[in-house]
């Protein structure tokens, strides 16, 4: 299943496969459990995604979703550009690197899985913050699990190539904290695919 199904889904698929086998053996609603199995396979699908461009300064989307917010914010006591991407329930949940970069820090905090519509969810839900360096360019990514996530999967990573897989998010939001001068090419409400173009970092001076 590697390359077609996200690793985070293996245990769930095995569980529903066993349920389907038992239901088929005893004739107890096998079509219902077969539908659940196919739904699980679809939820954890992991199609290949090629980077939109090989430009080293390109900023790629980390996940399938919709642009919820583009704003100027503060992060680590610095003014930054902020992009919030909301991942829909049936969107592909594989997390991908937004650029070639080294990982300088990964902080994961266990928490709840509240609905994203609740403002308190950003503080209480399970989340992770990953900090990156790309030469002199520093940026960060906050991943907040949503109500349909049962865990937040982040692989053991030290460096990443653009569009490389590094985790899985069942539902929730991905927030990018970027240098203030980043050129952003998308707008609020726009749907994006993982590895599609969000913008460009400014060239190092």
From TrEMBL:
The keyword Transmembrane applies. One of its GO terms (molecular function) is phosphatidylserine decarboxylase activity. It comes from the Bacteria. InterPro entries: PS_Dcarbxylase, PSD-A. It holds the Pfam family PS_Dcarbxylase. Keywords: Cell membrane, Decarboxylase, Lipid biosynthesis, Lipid metabolism, Lyase, Membrane, Phospholipid biosynthesis, Phospholipid metabolism, Pyruvate, Transmembrane, Transmembrane helix, Zymogen. The chain crosses the membrane at residues 12-44. GO terms for biological process: phospholipid biosynthetic process. The keyword Nucleus does not apply. This is Phosphatidylserine decarboxylase-related protein. It comes from Campylobacter concisus.
